[in-house]
Amino acid sequence: MAKNPVLEKARQEAYNKGFKKGVEIGQDNACLIFASKFEGLQDVPGIGPKLMEKIVNHFGREYFEVVEVEKT
After folding, report:
1. What's the CA gap between 52 and 42, in Å, rounded?
2. Percentage of residues in the chain having pLDDT higher than 70
3. pTM above 0.70, yes or no
4. What's the whole-number mean pLDDT along residues 15-36?
């Protein structure tokens, strides 16, 4: 039995939309986990403003910004 092309197209579009949303949520969660690892880093003895700036510049400022994730 052949697959209905209209249903197959709708299924593929729904899959792609769900996959895209899942990737976005995964990236946001990864950034939150990464940021949590560095939370309080500036309070560690030996890490001053200059070293902290080097760390931020190395990884990128976007990893140190607060990201709000929608709960679904």
Report:
1. 7
2. 83
3. no
4. 80
Listed residue (41, 36, 67) closest to 55, CA to CA: 41
Q: How confident is the model at residue 34, as a pLDDT?
A: 73
Per-residue tokens: 21: 């949303």
What's the per-residue H, E or C state across the chain? CCCCHHHHHHHHHHHHHHHHHHHHHHHHHHHHHHHHHHCCHHHCCCCCHHHHHHHHHHHCHHHHCCCCCCCC
For 35, the token pair is: 């940021």
pLDDT at residue 71 in the model: 55
Helix ranges restricted to H, 39-68: 49-59
